[in-house]
Design brief:
The complex is a heterodimer. By secondary structure, chain A is an all-beta fold. Chain A has no helices and 11 strands. In chain A, the strands form 2 sheets. In chain A, strands 2, 4, 5, 6, 9, 10 and 11 form a 7-stranded mixed sheet that branches. Chain A has a 4-stranded antiparallel sheet with strand order 1-3-8-7, with no helix packed on it. Chain A is globular and about 40 Å long. The N and C termini of chain A lie far apart (about 35 Å). Helices cover about 0% and strands about 55% of the residues of chain B. Chain B contains no helices and 11 strands. In chain B, strands 2, 4, 5, 9, 10 and 11 form a 6-stranded mixed sheet that branches. In chain B, strands 1-3-8-7-6 form a 5-stranded antiparallel sheet, with no helix packed on it. In chain B, β7 and β8 form a beta hairpin. Classes of the chains: A mainly beta, B mainly beta. At the A-B interface, β5, β9 and β10 of A face β5 and β10 of B.
């Protein structure tokens, strides 16, 4: 398996622009997580899905952030409009719980977002 | 509230043994995980403890004491490639909403 795939790997944009981050989880995994990592706040869970359904989005910082999972193999995290304080590394992770799987999370390589 | 505390930095020499501690405060407890992250890389899973005691995986071991709300990661025969940040993590009660510790940066010296 190719592991969790994220795109783009790097994104530089200007304040006010829309940013869309993409994630393809590992095939067969039933949970998908979006995290944000910064020096100041560490690794924070933004939202997670189970079988494509959002379960907990309490970590989403504000209405400018939205996430979707239209099918089992694709998810997006959108920021509109973006602000400089959104600059961070965004990770997607997936895991399989159903069928006796453990909750080991497999992280993608991350998207490094810079908002100027 | 829920929180995990780790030392911010640990330094050791090649071949040595190092212990990274994690104390947690959660409303419920389902297990303690450890992840490794190299600079510029993604977190990768190392170990998981649901029950008290020691879990060994090669050079790495992880220990949990639920009564003390405490765990540690033990790294033996340190190698330069072990220089990385190490995070403990717990899921909040009844969910898969994970909270990660602030991370411990391990520096291995030659």
């Amino acid at each position: 398996d190719a592991g969790v795939i994220q795109s783009p790997r790097h994104e530089v944009t200007e304040m006010g622009q829309e940013v869309t981050l993409r994630c393809k989880p590992i095939s067969g995994h039933d949970y998908l997580f979006w995290y944000r990592q910064t020096m100041m706040r560490g690794l924070e869970l933004l939202i997670y899905f189970n079988n494509n359904v959002p379960i907990d989005d309490s970590g989403m910082p504000e209405d400018r952030f939205s996430a979707k999972m239209p099918n089992a193999s694709f998810s997006t995290l959108k920021i509109q409009p973006s602000e400089p304080r959104d600059s961070a590394v965004y990770f997607c992770a997936s895991t399989q719980i159903a069928g006796g799987g453990t909750d080991t999370q497999y992280f993608g390589p991350g998207t490094r977002l810079t908002v100027l | 509230g829920q929180s995990l505390e780790q030392p911010s930095e640990v330094t050791a020499v090649e071949g040595a043994i190092v212990q990274i501690n994690c104390t947690y405060q959660t409303s419920g407890f389902y297990g303690l995980s450890w992840y490794q992250q190299h600079d510029g890389g993604a977190p990768t899973f190392l170990s998981y403890n649901a029950l008290d005691g020691l879990e060994e995986t090669g050079r790495f071991s992880s220990f949990l004491s639920r009564s003390d709300s405490y765990g540690y990661l033990l790294l033996q025969e340190l190698q330069m490639k072990d220089s990385a940040s190490y995070f403990c993590a717990v899921p909040t009660s009844g969910t898969y909403k994970y909270i990660f510790g602030t991370g411990t940066r391990l520096k291995v010296l030659a």
